[in-house]
Amino acid sequence: MCADTAIKKDHEEGTRREFLNLAAGAFGALGTAAVVWPFIDSLNPAADTLAMASTEVDLSPIQEGQSITVMWRGKPVFIRHRTAAEIKSAEEVPVNALRDKEEDKDRVQKPEWLVMVGVCTHLGCVPLGQKETESKGDYGGWFCPCHGSHYDTSGRIRKGPAPKNLAVPEYAFLTDTTIRIG
Amino acid sequence: MAGGQRQKFDNPVVEWVDSRLPVFTLMQKEYGVFPTPRNFNYFWNFGAIAMFMLVTMIVTGITLAMQYTSSTSMAFDSVERIMRDVNYGWLIRYIHMNGASFFFIAVYIHIFRGMYYGSYKQPRELLWILGVVIFLLMMATAFMGYVLPWGQMSYWGATVITNLFSAVPVVGDDIVTLLWGGFSVDDATLKRFFALHYLLPFVIFAVVFLHVWALHVTGSNNPTGVEPKGKQDTLPFHPYYTMKDTFGLIVFVIIYAAFVFFMPNALGHPDNYIPADPLVTPAHIVPEWYFLPFYAILRAITFDLGIPFTEVVLIEAKLGGVIAMFGAIVLLLIMPWLDTHPVRSARYRPWYKKTLLVFVFGVVVLGYAGSQPADKVYWQTCIGSEAACEATDAHHGAADATGHHDVAEKAPTVLKFDNTMLAQLFTIYYYAFFLVILPLLSRKEQALPIPKSIHEAVLAKSKAKETK
User: Fold this and answer.
1) N or C: which end of chain B has fewer CB within 10 A?
2) Is this prediction's ipTM beyond 0.85?
3) Count of other CB atoms within 10 angstroms of residue B349
């Protein structure tokens, strides 16, 4: 003990042994983290999952007022050929009244084509409203039956627990009637 | 243990083993002569019953795993194959499927026992915490097991529950992608759930070992909540409680078997016999019955929490629901420090007893609320002119496409009590019980006189019987 304190006095800023312990400990911690990371990252989407991440859709058979649902990344994508009345009602909504403030024009590339991920932003159910016979909710767009979220003709959240508008995926018009999603 | 006093066994083989590894001495000490309070009632059977259920689940689960395929294209069919083609596959699957429910029944009664008789109190806090950890692990295991048959409820249950994590601020979506291993619940998700569903029961087993170890350090609580003071208060575990546990277990297993053989799907949901379809959400997603109270708490938070009179939102409704649900279990975890009343058993705490029974009633009502659609209306009345009331009714039915409603000349007030409000009411009681009632009773409640010792309580009871 006496020898120890004597050494301590000589090395106010820390002994050689303290430095070695600290360095070895830090090295070990970093090494462990480096080994753990591959295991965690292996749980993330694999290369083949990422490779299947885009899909092409022919829009020509969809009449005005009709919708289709396509699969993209294992999720449904809603594509709606909107009527003039639907576009008008979507554009007329004052943005400040919305929970997730977005203009209709920021959600579409061509106003008649609305493309969005058909997954409710609350807890991931598929909203109703794609088929003629299904409930479209209080705002004429989509209605999620799980917890009662109402979306308008631009797919924006208007009422219910969902925090966000239906997501618009990345997509591009390849020709006038073909799009590639993703 | 080495060097301690060890009694010799007569059987030479047992003696040979025991002198090298004293497992027989250990069993003799912990399960043979182990001094156990003499006044246990049948509530004390459920620990042993839960242990039996864990072993049943592991044995049937391993057998099922030998036939099951964890890929999205084959999972549903492999389960149907187990039901139709595998010898006794139907039996093993029904034992496993209903076993989950009966495991939870046993554990819920076991938890209630602990709450009623104050088993969580000093010095058994850690024992109680280990129990809550087992409960959490059980919930995770049961949830992942329910996904494996890959029916509609499996798929959408998994989607809804994993999406809860998207409520976490900033990194929420990354966490969900990490959980899924893709962009939706899919093959990668099913495979990892199967791996974890196989792993977790063994983790539970390890924590149960710690739970029982901690129990054998403090000894069992008992219906009076008074610690045993000597030999006159206890009985050796064997044969007294091995027999009592066996009897209770037999009764429990008879009821369990009745479900397995005569109503195997009564506790399940028919939608799970429809193969998973990522494009169609079932009209009404409900978790298994044992999750319903927590599901009701999750759905009860339908409002954002923010700074009043500003538009600043601190906690969105979605995150609020998730916090409330996990918080409901955290409250159990810290219960020993919320209730610091010196008397353990509810027998001698009239107010604790009443409020606890209301709490149990509340949890049952929450379970009911969780099973019903969120917007179900129980009671409704309209204050205003008859014409105006009819107008609002009509409006409710027909939604207009343009998105704005006409304002009636004189808007009537509609008063209603719906399922969300029911859930909110009992969620408030759930939280109030832990955070207000328990601390308050700890300070104010006047307890009834408690018996001096267990044997005095037992003698008083038998005397009362004689005079009758």
Assistant:
1) C
2) no
3) 24
> Are the C-beta atoms of residues B134 and B332 closer than 8 Å to each other?
no
What pTM was computed for the model?
A: 0.86
B191 at interface of A, judged by CB pairs closer than 8 A: no
Q: B408: pLDDT confidence band, cut at 50, 70 and 90?
A: very low
Interface residue B172 vs chain A (CB under 8 A): no
Is some CB atom of chain A closer than 8 A to the CB atom of B160?
yes
Min Cα–Cα distance to chain A from B382, Å: 21
B186, closest residue in chain A (CA to CA): A74
* Chain A contact for B168 (CB, 8 A cutoff): no
The correct answer on CATH 2.102.10.10 for the domain covering A50-181 is yes
Contacts of A45 in chain B (CB under 8 A): 177, 180-183, 188
Of the candidates B190, B283, B400, B321, which has an alpha carbon nearest to the alpha carbon of residue A126? B283
Which among B249, B217, B242, B225 has a CA at the least distance from the CA of B37?
A: B225
Say if CB B344 and CB B118 are below 8 A apart: yes
Provide the CA B296 distance to its chain's centre, in angstroms.
Answer: 14
Under 8 Å between Cβ of B118 and B346: yes
H helices of B219-315, in order, are 237-262, 292-300
Nearest in space to B76 (alpha carbons), one of B193, B155, B163 = B155
Q: Please list every residue in chain A whose beta carbon sits closer than 8 Å to the beta carbon of residue B184.
A: 73-75
Please indicate whether, in this complex, the C-beta atoms of A163 and B182 are within 8 angstroms of each other: no
Chain A to chain B Cβ contacts (< 8 Å): 101
Mean pLDDT of B320-347: 95
A27 to chain B nearest CA, in Å? 27
Among the partner-chain residues A126, A144, A148, the one whose CB lies closest to the CB of B279 is A126
CA-based diameter of chain A, in Å? 92
In this complex, the residue of B179, B299, B402 whose CB is nearest that of residue A147 is B299
DSSP B153: H
Contact B374 A147 (CB under 8 A): yes
Domain ranges of chain A: 1-44, 50-181
Distance between CA B180 and CA A33 in Å, rounded?
Answer: 22
Structure tokens at A12: 């106010």
Is residue B400 scored above 50 in pLDDT?
A: no
Please, what sign has the CA dihedral across residues B215, B221, B227, B228?
negative
Query: What are the angstrom distances between the C-alpha of B156 and each of B146, B185, B350?
Result: 11, 9, 44
Q: B410 pLDDT exceeds 70?
A: no
Contacts of residue A53 in chain B, CB cutoff 8 Å? 183
